[in-house]
Amino acid sequence: MSTDVTTEENRNGTRASRLPRWSKPLIALAAVLALLFLGSRLDLVPGLGGLFGEETHDRTGPTLLESIQDLDRYEAASGNFQVVVDLEKDAKYLPDAIRGTRTLYVGAGTVSAYVDFSGIGENSVQVDKERTSATIRLPHAQLGKPALDPERSYAVSKQRGLLDRLGDLFSDNPADERAVNQLAARHIGDAAKDSELTARAEKNTTSMLQGLLRSLGFTDVKIVYA
Known about the structure:
It contains 4 helices and 10 strands. By secondary structure, it is of the alpha+beta class.
């Protein structure tokens, strides 16, 4: 009965076993996986993260200016917000250890409040004959879109099932954080609506316009938000 394991004689006359040919690729693959696993674990040990001499190169191309827009508005206030997003996605009929993700994410960003001056016309400004009294009618302040700050936003923890981890190996963007970023921006926008940010913006706009017109000789300046 023949086997795949062959033997050969050495100089001392003894016979040594030789591994089959199909075992060599398996040994090479195991060695590569061991190096990858070791490289990923070295970052967890202080002082060993730079053992392989990792370097970072920025090969980003030039930034292109796509468009320019004139802003006819006065940004009078800005609010800083922070929210802790706990996003969990489950799969039906499968345990979380097999399929499912849960991300704990701290999102920090700003929301600006502004007054739009683009709609101001002749009827929006009333001045008396002596040019000492002025009344300006403005629209109410509005909120801008939430802008997340990447320097202050970070993921606290990520839990992924086995199938999700395997999917990240073949994904162009593993552990995609777009979902938590969008959710954080939405919560920050809702918090800005419940805050007094627009009221503060109208107050600051009133102070700015009153100071400007009084410097031009007006003594009575009234700002009305309609």
